[in-house]
Amino acid sequence: MIALEFDHSLTPESPSPGMARLDVKRQSIPASKDFWETPMRRRRRDRARNPLTPTAPDVIAVTFRETVALVEVLEHAHAQISELSNVDKGTIANASGFLLAPSLYARVGLASVKGSHSIPLLSTEVGSLEAAVINLESYRGNEVALCTGYELLENFAKREKNSHRMQYIHGVLAFIDEVGDAANGSAAPSLT
After folding, report:
1. Cα(168)–Cα(171) distance, rounded to whole angstroms?
2. Helix residue ranges per DSSP H, the chain
3. Could you report the per-residue pLDDT of 58-107, keeping only the tens digit for each?
4. The pTM is what?
5. Which residues lie across from 166 on neighbouring strands?
6. Which among 37, 60, 41, 36 is positioned nearest to 152, based on CA atoms?
7. Paired strand residues for 63
8. C-alpha to C-alpha distance for 76 and 132, rounded to whole angstroms
9. How does the average pLDDT of the chain come out, rounded?
10. In whole angstroms, how large is the CA radius of gyration of the chain?
């Protein structure tokens, strides 16, 4: 880092002998003394700070049967949009919510191993279902898939959010079942 000392008595019009002339236009240091005399501002201790830990996202509990219906709607939306649209695969996957299916499969698998009867669904993932249903309307989707999608959206809107605590187990979102997890031990597979 280069430190510059600034002599305020030196002006560009009359440089002192042996001193280089300063170009005020290119100068990055303010020429006024007020800048240097301004006290530093500190954060007030009486104001509340934002927490450093992120808040948990909104989650609802979804049954296996609803998960199967959800995946069927997403797969139908993906097939319809792929068939009738000429955009790239990434856009089609986002518009149909198809990228959600693999994580839903992982959650169902983990929940079945743990003996749970429901899986967590994030509120942002409900938005993916909504986008898929809207796009199904535009791309002449099957009426049964549309009705199923709207029924799921209606049911999900009525659900109580954050009724269960959640955690990530091996990168898969799962509910913490206090009774089941305490009795069965860790959900991690045993290597012995």
Report:
1. 5
2. 34-37, 64-84, 89-96, 101-114, 123-138, 143-158, 178-184
3. 889 999 999 999 999 999 999 999 998 888 888 888 888 899 999 999 99
4. 0.63
5. 175
6. 60
7. 118
8. 9
9. 75
10. 30
For 34-63, give one letter per residue: b (16+ CB within 10 A) or e: eeeeeeeeeeeeeeeeeeeeeeeeebbbbe
Tokens representing 147 are 């009705």
Strand pairing category for 172-175 and 166-169: antiparallel
Q: How far apart are CA 192 and CA 182, in angstroms?
A: 20
Cβ neighbours for 16, distance < 8 A, ≥ 6 positions apart: 10
> What span, in angstroms and rounded, lies between the C-alpha atoms of 118 and 107?
9
Give the C-alpha separation, 20 to 24, whole Å: 12
Phi, psi (degrees; rounded to nearest 5) at 66: -70, -35
Partner residues linked to 113 by β-bridges: none
**Neighbour-count burial for 117-128, b at 16+ CB within 10 Å, e otherwise:** ebbbbbeebbeb
Residue found under tokens 């919510």: 97
**pLDDT given at position 178:** 45
